[in-house]
Amino acid sequence: MTRRRVLVVEDERVINDQLAERLRAEGYDVAQAFDGLAAVHEAHAGEPDVVVLDVMLPGIDGHEVCRRIQALRPVPVLMLTARDDEADILVGLGVGADDYLTKPFRMREVVARVAALVRRVDRAAELAASPERSPLVVGALTVDPGRRRTTRDGAEVHLTPTEFDLLVCLAREPGQVLTRERLLADVWGWAETGLTGVATRTVDSHVKALRHKLGATWIRTVHGVGYALEPGEPAT
Ligand code: CA
């Protein structure tokens, strides 16, 4: 089995080394970058499977690094942020981050998140190779898992890989309320326990971004429970 490559991007050397050491102990090949430009270069040259990316970097910041990395090749990004601030998090998700952790974090939490992202990549590869070729149709919305395309009234809706996986999950069971825990398990590869408030908000933030692209009425929030894709014509 090939070892997975993780790129750790953090200018604080002590933290970077701690992350690298722990991830190597877990069996990953680890590359380290200490500033934004080096990170972009390493992401291009080293083709990591997962990137752990601090937002606060000298030169170009983590958001811009994420944007540049994703422009070349989609890769799961775990963002590290010093601020537990939703606006900041939405910016991160907007540039293609898949998950985030607020500092200070526990090493085993980083390891768990990285492992979940690796499982997600594996599952996406399986899905792409699976025989599920028929598009899912929900009202005016068509979601095609085989081609990874979404259209609304025939017009293409551009979604990030995470937004697309989230929509596929909801579109398989239109009208059904899917819990955040279920979405974390199915979309993010999280298994049962170990949930934190931050992880739950990852779901909320991605739903918010998806809703922004689809139109507000497509996704119904059931407070304290989860989300449902509405099969009916959206109210205008
Ligand atoms: Ca930093």
Describe, in short, the structure shown.
The protein has helices at 13-25, 36-46, 62-72, 86-94, 107-129, 161-172, 180-186, 197-214; strands spanning 5-9, 29-33, 50-54, 77-81, 99-102, 136-138, 141-144, 149-152, 155-156, 178-179, 219-222, 226-229. The protein is an alpha/beta fold and 236 residues long.
Describe it for me?
- It is a single chain.
- The chain is α/β, with parallel strands linked by helices.
- It is 44% helix and 20% strand.
- The protein is built from 8 helices and 12 strands.
- The strands form 3 sheets. A 5-stranded parallel β-sheet has the order 2-1-3-4-5, with helices on both faces. Strands 6-7-8-9 form a 4-stranded antiparallel β-sheet, covered by helices on one side.
- β7 and β8 (149-152) form a beta hairpin.
- The protein is globular.
- It starts with a strand and ends in a 7-residue tail after the last strand.
- The mean pLDDT is 87.
- Calcium ion binds at residues 10-12, 54, 56-57.
Rg from C-alpha positions? 18 Å
Shape, principal axes of CA atoms: globular
Biggest sheet features:
5 strands, parallel
Overall average residue pLDDT? 87
Q: What are the low-pLDDT stretches, counting only 5+ consecutive residues below 50?
A: none
The H-and-E topology, N to C, reads as EHEHEHEHEHEEEEHEHHEE
Our measurement of the CA-to-CA distance between the termini, rounded to an integer number of angstroms, reads 52 Å
Summed up, the helix count is 8
The number of distinct β-strands equals 12
- Specify the helix fraction band: 40-55%
Ligands (ions, cofactors included): calcium ion
